[in-house]
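Title: Prediction job returns without error message
Component: structure pipeline
Severity: low
Priority: P3
Assignee: unassigned

Description:
Job completed but the reporter wants confirmation the result is attached to the right record. Sequence as submitted:
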Amino acid sequence: MMTLSANLIALLLYTAAAIYFGRQFGRHKSLQSPQLRAVAMLALVAHGVGIYGLSLKDGQLLFSLFSISSLIFWVVNALVLVSSLKKELHNLFLLLFPLSAVSVLGAILGNNPEWQHPLEYTIAVHVILSLLAYSLLTIASLQALLLAYQNRALKNKSLLANSKLLPPLQTMESLLFEFLWVGEILLSLAIVSGFYFLEDMFAQHLVHKTVFALIAWFIYALLLWGRGHMGWRGTKAIRWALAGFVCLMLAYFGSKLVLEIVLNRV
């Protein structure tokens, strides 16, 4: 009962915040970072209690598409909240609040015991690295979306007022590549640790997951190389960043969706 209540409170907070701050942004009003952080902190507490109840039962870690997606968004919100104390990242909550609400709703509606599988503690390192990599690259992708909005605003006068509420374009782009670099390093470690713990790729139905993760790694690596050697920026950098994120999401969420819900396998 406590788990459901906590998730419902988190859902309510995320939804209300998404509506309120979205309307503020739509009216060209500056978003107050203390307010954003306060709401995010309250939602994170409730969200964390809800995740704990869904992911830990009888001393076992439970692993499912919906619980892990909710956990990823909790980590993303926590990272953005902490990072926003020193960097201009609080505007990312405009995108994070509605997405987090969807993830919590999915965790509530998708709390099916048949889709929950115990996770061995021996692969905890791989799971933690993967979560951190996914979370940082999710932040980078949200940053890329805001950057795309700013680029579009330069060509569309109706969007220009809102774009001025965001940090300068150069600052946004620098933050994007900072997150991409750290995310790529963590993704590299996650892939290496995955191969270390991998016993039988075919028996564990991990071929497609591994292939998409490697494709994502190469896309991010090429983007970072292009940034350093070819000066890639703007629309080109945004497209490459989002392409890598799509492959990364297909690697995990696509495979989990097919295996757990369609095929009903671990």
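Comment from assignee: result matches the submitted record. The beta strands are 56-57, 60-63, 117-119.
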